[in-house]
Amino acid sequence: MNLDLANKVAIVTGASRGIGRSIAKVLAQEGMHLVLAARSQDLLQEVAQACPAKAISLAADLREEQTPQRLVDLAVKTFGRIDCLVNNAGATKRGDFLQLTEADWQDGFALKFYGAVRCSRAAWPHLVQTQGTIINIVGVGGRTGSAEFSIGGAVNAALLNLTKVLADRGLQEGVRVNAINPGAITTERLQTRIQRLAKDNGLTIVEAAAQMATQLGIKRFGEPEEIATAVAFLASAKSNYCQGAILDIDGGQTRTL
C-alpha cells in the first residue's frame, strides 16, 4: 500500500532496539526522513545507516528536561519540518508493589510519561503547521492491571489519558493523536522475562515461552514489525478519521473494554 509518506519527517524515540527499531525501518521504507533518539549512540548509528531514507540521530536521555526540545530543534534545523512524532521510549520496572522504591516510581514516570509530555509539547507547534500526527506506543498494562506491573500500568494508563487529552486539543488545531497498545512482542525485554520464567521453574526456553503465552491467553507472541506497520498506517492520511483511537495489538490478550 502506498501511504504517501515520502519526504515527510518523523521523530522516533526509543529507536535503538525492539519496537522502535522496527518503526524506524518501516517508516524509512515508506520514504520518511527520520530523527532517531535513544541513549545508545552506537545502536542508533546502526539503525540510521540501515534506513533507506535520510536519518539522523541524537543520543540523549529523554528523562532530562531539556532533551525533548533539543530533539525537536534538531529535526527542524535539519529537515525544516515535523510531520510525525512517535513517542516510543520508556521501560518500567516490574516487581512486588511493596518492594518497589520511590526512585523506581519516579524513574518509571520520568522517561515514558514525562518524556512523551515534553516531546509532544515541544513538537506541537510544528505539527500544527504540517497538520501532523502523534503516535504514542503505550502497552496493554494500562488497560488491565496486574500485581507485578504496578508502575508500568500506572504510567501506561496516564499516557492513554494523555492521548485522549491531546486528541481533544488536536481536533481544533489539526493534529491527529492516537495510541497503540502492544501486547507481548518478541523484543529483548520479552526474552528476558521468558528466561527468568524458565530459570525459576526449571523449564526450557521453549517450554517457558509456551507457558507464558498460555498464561496470557494468546496463541503466539507478536512481532515488532506488526506494531511498526500500524504506526505507518496511523502516520498516513489513510487513517484521517482516527482521532484519540487506542489500538490494541496484542493477539487477543486484552479482554476488558
CATH C-level class of the largest domain is Alpha Beta
CATH topology of the largest domain: Rossmann fold
- How many discrete structural domains? 2
Helicity range of the residues? 40-55%
Low-confidence stretches: none
Shape: globular
**Largest sheet entry:** 7 strands, parallel
Give the termini distance in whole angstroms.
31 Å
Q: How many DSSP helices?
A: 8
Within the largest sheet, what's the order of strands?
A: 3-2-1-4-5-6-7
Q: SSE order in H/E notation?
A: EHEHEHEHEHEHHHE
Mind telling me which CATH architecture of the largest domain this is?
A: 3-Layer(aba) Sandwich
The helix/strand class is alpha/beta
Could you give the count of β-strands? 7
Task: Kindly report the name of the CATH homologous superfamily of the largest domain.
Answer: NAD(P)-binding Rossmann-like Domain
Q: Could you describe the 3D structure shown?
A:
This protein is of the alpha/beta class and 257 residues long. It has 2 domains: 9-185 and 223-249, 3-Layer(aba) Sandwich (Rossmann fold); 186-221, no CATH class. 49% of the residues lie in helices and 14% in strands. The chain contains 8 helices and 7 strands, in the order E-H-E-H-E-H-E-H-E-H-E-H-H-H-E. It has a 7-stranded parallel β-sheet, sandwiched between helices. The longest helix is centred in the middle third of the chain and has 29 residues, at 102-130.
Give keywords.
257 residues; alpha/beta; Rossmann fold; 2 domains; seven-stranded parallel β-sheet; globular
